[in-house]
Amino acid sequence: MQSPVLLARELRWHTRQALVRAHGQALLSITLRVPLSLRRDGRFLDAFEALCARVQQCFKQEGCALTPVLCARDADGPARHYVLQDAQAGKRLAAAFEEDHPGGLLLDIDVLDAEGQPLDREGLHLQPRACVVCGARPGSPCIVGKVHSAHDTQAAFLRVVHRLALREPWPDRIGRLALRSLLYEVSISPKPGLVDRFDSGAHSDMDFYSYLDSALSLQPYFAHCARLGADIDLAADALLTALRPLGLEAEQAMLQATGGVNTHRGLIFSLGILSAAAGRLGPDCAAADLCALAGQIAAPSLQDAPGDSHGQQANRRYGVPGVRGEAALGFPSALAVLPLLNSDPSPDRAGLRALLALMVRVQDTNVLYRAGEEGLRFMQQGARALLDTEIPAGYLTDFCRQMTDRRISPGGCADLLAVAFFLHSIDTPCSALT
Which part of the chain is CATH 1.10.4200.10? Predict the structure, then answer.
């Protein structure tokens, strides 16, 4: 009489064949690769669910979308089955995930073509999988010959799942990086016309500490946006609609933290969209790709009915793109100053240089609303003069005083500096700024 495990394996094979016939497409199946004794362990079951979602996300990013057709759990452990269009492309992506993702060691990702025939690595000239315990390739002789003890094998897989558990979830990391970008922006000092560590610039209703309170209130929002972005069932052009209720809740949290003062409304919009884009692209995304996807997400905002915010009033009066235009274009101004954040090991000096470059480049709607075109020219000329003369301390002090006296606050540029810090942390995860 066959054991329950062998019966489950036989039934799983027949189930896969039936799914191929029913759908007339290739089939990808994900199962746990771990010893049988661990396949009911909650740590491995949780890791399995998270890794299956990551596999779907990776495949979609590569243009090889998976359609779920069956989830099951039997004596042999959990299994998920998906149909896909291109069996060979699917097998190559599966092998890459098994090799490159930290959790790939825990999975077997098998592919049947549309005729129900299994594809193997050898047939696609891919290297065989390594042994989890000793790393030897191929790993099959270690398994068949029972080279390693059950204790050593189990310990090796436990180390893998432990390392995964120690890894910060990507949405939480996005929330932390977004928070850090807000804290870095307000901490750059001195900043012409803006709140910094030394004074409140052109603002009488906020200070450094109200900015800290506001930033801290928004971290959960950015992580939530990232989780929403990771939902592959939502198309990119539908994400903005889904993000808007979260943004309204975040505004209320901000206003409660600051006693009713708008400190970060622009960044709730910009960094919320970027957080969602980062959630969708995953930990290996580059700043340029992140901004391109953010532009797709933000594009529908250009069709919004005219609003009455200060930025929208300036947008209508002066015909400048404002935060919606910048976002829909993929944040070109923030991307342009990224090299400046690498120009100096001091975030203070690098951030000031990037801010001044933004003040020269950007038609800041906050400045236009407060001081008109004359104020914008004054700011741009002063920032250009500082950059051209290597930012002498005395001139910087005078310029900060003049900006404050004229009540000119380049809030849009400050928001883009925070965006640039966020993109920098995504692009250079091992940098001193992380």
Answer: 170-427
